[in-house]
Design goal:
The complex is a heterodimer of chains A (368) and B (182). Chain A has 368 residues and is mainly α. Helices cover 70% and strands 0% of the residues of chain A. Chain A contains 19 helices and no strands. Chain A is globular and about 65 Å long. With 182 residues, chain B is of the alpha+beta class. Chain B has 3 helices and 11 strands; from the N terminus they run ααβαββββββββββ. Chain B has helices at residues 2-31, 37-44, 67-70, and strands spanning 65-66, 79-82, 85-89, 94-99, 108-114, 119-125, 128-129, 133-135, 139-144, 154-164, 173-181. In chain B, strands 1, 2, 3, 5, 9 and 11 form a 6-stranded antiparallel beta sheet that branches. In chain B, strands 4, 6, 7, 8 and 10 form a 5-stranded antiparallel beta sheet that branches. The longest helix of chain B has 30 residues, at 2-31. The N and C termini of chain B lie far apart (79 Å). The chains are: A mainly alpha (368), B alpha+beta (182). Chain A binds chain B through residues 61-63, 67-69, 210, 213-214, 216-217, 220-221, 223-224, 227, 230-231, 234, 237-242, 245-246, 248-249, 253, and chain B through 5, 8-9, 12-13, 15-16, 19-20, 22-23, 25-26, 29-30, 33-35, 39, 42-44, 46, 50-51, 53-54.
Chain lengths: 368, 182
C-alpha cells in the first residue's frame, strides 16, 4: 500500500512539474517578447536575492532596490546556504541546484502531507490533498529558486512527528523551520496546542511525566534557528532585528490589517489589490473552517500566517496562503465528497498553474 | 530503568536551560542595537523619509544643504516630494540632524524658502519656538537661537509651523530649498 502511494504521489508530482516547465518554456519561447534565456527567466524576484546571498554573502549595508534601502538579510539563510553547499560539492551552478532541490523537497513534502492527512482522515482525502497542492497555481513556487518547499517539508514534518508524539524530532525540524523563513518560528503555537492535547495542561505545567520534558524541549528549541540568525545579524549589522526592519524597503509597515482588507476591496476589480484581497478573504474562510473542523493546530498557524504579513501589506498574500498545507487539507475535505467536483477543481487549478507559469517567466507583477 | 528515566529527564532539563539561556542572551541583543544614528532613525524609529545609501547622519555644520542632499534630513511624515523639490505640507514636516560639540555653534539657522502666499513661519528647535517671520516670496530667512537648545551627540529636530496671513484660499505649503545651521 505504501509503495503504491509513493508511486501515485511521484506520478502527481512529475506531471505537475512537467506542466509547469512546459508552459513556462512555451511562454518564454512564443509569448514573451523579451525572451530571456529560459534558465534565467525562471529566476524572478526573491530568487535573485537568494542568488545574491550565495554569490556575495549577506550585505554589510543596504543598497538594493530603487531607493537603495533594501538588503538581502531580509531572506533567511537555511535554504540558500544548503544550496550553496550542494553547489560547492557537486560543482553544479547554484541556480540549477536551487531549482532542483526546491522541487525534490516538494516531492517529499507531498509524501509527508499524505502521511499526515491519511492519519487525520483517510487515504482518499490524503491523496486529494496531494493532488490539489501539486496542481495549485502557486505550486509554481515549489520549483523555482524559493525557500517554499523547504518551509513546506519542515512544516509538515513537525506536524507529522508532533502528532506521533516524537517531540525531539519535531523540535529539531521546528528549529530548522525557524531558520528558513520569518514565519517559521510561529510553529511553536501549533506545537503547543498539539502538546497540550497529548499531555494535558496540568501535566505540562507541573512536569508530571517524562513526555512533558520532551514537549518543553521541542518548544524551547523550536525558535533556535531564528535566534541563531538574529544573533548573526547583530554581529554582522549591529541590529539583531535587521531582517524585520529592512522590510521598510519593500514598503511594509505595521498597519491595521482590516483597514488594508477594506481598502483592497475598494480597488478596481481588475487590479492586483482587489485580487490579493479576495485571495486573503478566501484564506480567512478556509482558516475559519479549520476552526469549525476542530483542527486547532492548523488553525492557529493559518491565523498567524495570514495576519502577520497582512498587518504590513497585501502584497504576496496569495502566495503566503496557497503554499500552506492546511489550505489543501481543508479543500480536499470539501471537494472529496464528489468526483465531479474534484475533477472540476483540479481542472481549474491546472488552468491557473498553466497561466501563472507563463506569466512567471514573463515577469508579470500579479504572480507575486 | 528508573535511573535511565532520571538521567534522560536531567539531560532534557540541561538542554532546555542551555537553549533558553541562549535565547535570553539574544533577546538582550535585540533590545540594544549597535547602529548608526541614521540607521536607527530610518529603519528602527522610521522617522526619516530616505535612506542615504549607508552613510551615517552627520551634523550639517556650516554647509548649506540644498534639495537632493537635504533629503537625508527629512522626516518620513509631512513632506511631499515632487521632481526632487521638497514641500512641507500640513505643517507636519520636520528636519532631523545630529549635533556634536554644541559649544562650537553660534546659534543661527538659515533657511532658503519659497511660498505661494503670505505666511507666518515659526520654526521650532527641539520643540522650542524660535522667532516668527513673515514670508511672502522666495528668499533666505535667518533665525537666531540659544545654542544650548541643541542636544549634543544625538538627534535634534526642527519643526515648521506656519499660518496663512493672506486669508486667501491658497493651499498652505512651504517649499524648503536650503538649510544651514551654524
Amino acid at each position: 500500500m505504501r509503495a503504491q502511494a509513493w508511486k501515485k504521489i511521484l506520478w502527481i508530482f512529475l506531471s505537475s512539474r512537467v506542466l509547469i516547465v512546459f508552459s513556462a518554456w512555451f511562454g518564454n519561447q512564443y509569448i514573451d517578447p523579451v525572451r530571456l534565456d529560459f534558465r534565467d527567466a525562471f529566476c524572478r524576484m526573491d530568487c535573485t536575492w537568494y542568488m545574491d546571498i550565495i554569490s556575495h554573502g549577506y550585505q554589510l549595508a543596504p543598497s538594493g532596490l530603487r531607493d537603495g534601502g533594501a538588503a538581502n538579510w531580509a531572506f533567511f539563510p537555511l535554504f540558500p546556504k544548503i544550496v550553496s553547499f550542494i553547489s560547492y560539492l557537486s560543482m553544479v551552478p547554484a541556480l540549477y541546484v536551487g531549482y532542483l532541490l526546491n522541487s525534490v523537497l516538494f516531492f517529499f513534502g507531498l509524501y509527508f502531507l499524505f502521511v499526515y492527512v491519511k492519519k487525520a482522515y483517510d487515504e482518499k482525502i490524503a491523496m486529494t490533498s496531494v493532488l490539489l497542492m501539486a496542481f495549485s497555481p502557486y505550486s509554481l513556487y515549489f520549483s523555482t529558486f524559493y525557500s517554499e518547499s523547504m518551509f513546506f517539508l519542515l512544516f509538515i514534518l513537525v506536524f507529522v512527528f508532533a502528532d506521533q508524539g516524537k517531540w525531539v524530532e519535531a523540535g529539531l525540524f521546528a528549529a530548522l523551520l525557524s531558520a528558513t523563513r520569518p514565519l517559521g518560528v510561529m510553529i511553536v503555537f501549533p506545537m503547543l496546542i498539539m502538546g497540550l492535547k497529548q499531555v494535558g495542561l496540568k501535566n505540562l505545567i507541573f512536569f508530571k511525566t517524562e513526555d512533558v520534558y520532551k514537549v518543553w524541549f521541542a518548544l524551547v528549541i523550536a525558535p533556535l534557528g531564528l535566534f541563531a540568525y538574529i544573533h548573526f545579524l547583530y554581529l554582522h549589522t549591529g541590529d539583531a532585528m535587521a531582517f524585520s526592519h529592512i522590510q521598510i524597503a519593500w514598503h511594509r509597515y505595521v498597519q491595521n490589517p482590516f483597514r488594508l482588507l477594506i481598502g483592497g476591496l475598494m480597488q478596481p476589480i481588475a487590479s492586483y489589490g482587489f485580487y490579493t484581497t479576495i485571495a486573503t478573504v478566501g484564506g480567512l474562510l478556509i482558516t475559519l473552517m479549520l476552526f469549525l473542523k476542530k483542527r486547532y493546530a492548523e488553525f492557529s498557524f493559518m491565523v498567524l500566517a495570514i495576519f502577520i504579513p497582512l498587518s504590513t501589506s497585501l502584497v504576496a498574500m496569495p502566495r503566503y496562503i496557497f503554499t500552506l498545507f492546511p489550505t489543501y487539507m481543508l479543500l480536499a475535505l470539501f471537494v472529496d465528497r464528489s468526483t465531479y467536483l474534484k475533477n472540476i477543481m483540479v481542472f481549474i487549478l491546472m488552468i491557473g498553474l498553466l497561466f501563472l507559469s507563463v506569466s512567471w517567466v514573463m515577469g508579470e507583477w500579479y504572480t507575486r | 530503568m528508573m535511573q535511565s528515566i532520571f538521567s534522560k529527564k536531567y539531560l532534557f532539563i540541561v538542554l532546555i536551560l542551555m537553549a533558553g539561556g541562549f535565547e535570553l542572551y539574544v533577546f538582550n541583543e535585540m533590545r540594544h542595537p549597535n547602529v548608526s544614528l541614521h540607521y536607527r532613525l530610518y529603519y528602527i524609529e522610521k522617522k526619516l523619509a530616505f535612506w542615504d545609501h549607508g552613510k551615517t547622519l552627520l551634523y550639517p555644520r556650516a554647509t548649506a544643504y540644498k534639495e537632493i542632499e537635504m533629503k537625508r534630513f527629512l522626516s518620513r511624515q509631512g513632506w511631499l516630494v515632487e521632481n526632487n523639490i521638497t514641500y512641507a505640507t500640513k505643517q507636519a514636516g520636520s528636519l532631523y540632524f545630529e549635533a556634536e560639540n554644541i559649544q562650537e555653534y553660534r546659534g543661527k539657522l538659515t533657511l532658503g524658502l519659497a511660498t505661494q502666499t503670505v505666511q507666518k513661519l515659526t520654526p521650532k528647535l527641539n520643540h522650542t519656538p524660535l522667532q516668527q517671520q513673515i514670508i511672502s516670496e522666495e528668499g533666505i530667512v535667518e533665525f537666531f537661537f540659544d545654542p544650548t537648545l541643541l542636544v549634543d551627540n544625538t538627534i535634534n529636530q526642527i519643526e515648521f509651523e506656519f499660518t496663512n496671513e493672506a486669508n486667501d484660499n491658497t493651499t498652505q505649503s512651504i517649499k524648503l530649498m536650503s538649510f544651514k545651521i551654524e
